[in-house]
Amino acid sequence: MNKVSQEIMGMLGISLVLDQAYFKDFFEQNDSILRLNHYPPCQKPELTLGTGPHTDPTSLTILQQDQVGGLQVFADEKWHSVAHIPGAFVVNIGDTFMALTNGIYKSCLHRAVVNTETVRKSLAFFLCPKLERPVTPAAGLVNAANSRKYPDFTWAALLEFTQNHYRADMKTLVAFSKWVQEQESNNKLIP
Ligand code: OGA
Ligand code: NI
């Protein structure tokens, strides 16, 4: 998975007219998370969600969903079901990559629904930066037409924020950026 994500990072670099090695180098040393989701059937699926709407705080997600299906993405003002394609992974951008590209790549809003009949399982691999490495956009992606969107931060700080202060949702990066700026101004007040 690490290798696949590095290859994707190479292509994402090319797509932004950065060097192919740019994100590969950035993520050569990295942190990663593997999560197994298990969604039991539910008698009233219309009253609940397996996973509420959120963007992944991480950088790149590679997800394997089983044949039951249930993943949905929000695009063009509505929810779209992501079909299970045998042998295919679902790949999506997370908040940390959005910050690294100064908002050019957007983290993708998604959720998972449940059904009355069948257990559903999915396996998600999340690529994240090395814990203490500063997350700062590539110089070429900040300019007069696209001014700086987010403060510098570390994945360690965003991880702590989502685990201890805030539950990941559709506004995580904005809420986190505000929190980082507040922490910085508090630190300046302490002599
Ligand atoms: C996640 C997630 C969706 C799914 O683990 O972050 O969004 O289909 N999972 O299980
Ligand atoms: Ni997710």
Automatic annotation (TrEMBL):
Q: List the PROSITE patterns.
A: FE2OG_OXY (PS51471)
Q: What is this protein called?
A: Fe2OG dioxygenase domain-containing protein
Give every Fe2OG dioxygenase domain span. Answer: 29-129
Species per Swiss-Prot/TrEMBL record: Gossypium gossypioides
Which Gene3D superfamilies does the annotation name? B-lactam Antibiotic, Isopenicillin N Synthase, Chain
